[in-house]
Design a protein that fits this description.
Blueprint (H helix, E strand, L loop, with lengths): L7 E5 L4 H12 L4 E6 L2 H15 L3 E5 L6 H11 L5 E4 L9 H23 L8 E6 L12 H17 L2 H7 L1 E8 L5 H4 L9 H9 L6 H14 L5 E4 L6 E3 L2
Parallel strand pairs: 1-2, 1-4, 2-3, 4-5, 5-6, 6-7
Antiparallel strand pairs: 7-8
Amino acid sequence: MASVEGITLVVTGGAEGLGFSMVENFLQGGAKLAIILDVNEQKGAEAIKTVKAKYGDKAVFLKCDVTKDLDAVFDKVMSEYGPVDLLVNNAGVLAEHSYNKTIDINTTAVIAWSLKFYDAMRKDRGGRGGTIINVSSIYGYRISAYIPIYHASKFAVLGFSKSLGHKINFERSGVRVVTLCPGPTHTTLASNVHIREDEFLEDFKEEVKLLEWQTPESIGRGTVAIYRQAASGEVWLVEGERPAEKINV
């Protein structure tokens, strides 16, 4: 099992919701430093205040748009806080009215950030190994009629992560790549859903009411469990307040 003790981690979309719960749970487990990346400066300041009160000076916040700021943020992280042991690509949107925004944030950014950190971590190119956890969704492998663009973005994350995390790549690089598929979670994103055809919004809401929901805390705990246990290329589910479990998809 991988140890959380003493690690440095980066979490995109880390100022609230799933991302901040991940930060807190890794710090509870003994992480040395959490680097919180988020586009929302107010939430970032609140996150740092909360962390400082509970854990001391073990987190920093950097304002970051994952679609634009990769190179600048990566350079700052590496020069001031690196090396990084864990990257969690958590930032995401559900915005069916804008397929460009959805794909840019949910897919293209995940690929770009993964590859950047992967190359810095890989042992065969001078790194010391590491872990990347990419957040997909239950909708990365289950189908609803109402969110085709979101499905596309999350299916892509799952396929990309399984390929980059393939055992051949892991044996060469020493970098684990794992996929996390959360079920529906009580967050800001879940409470502000926009689907492509507005007249079916109530139908979609009724559909998701039947699913197993959980709190961000469950995702935070589950992400730590995944970090400790998962092999590269695996897909893990956290749903309905149950512990994280490996799934075959």
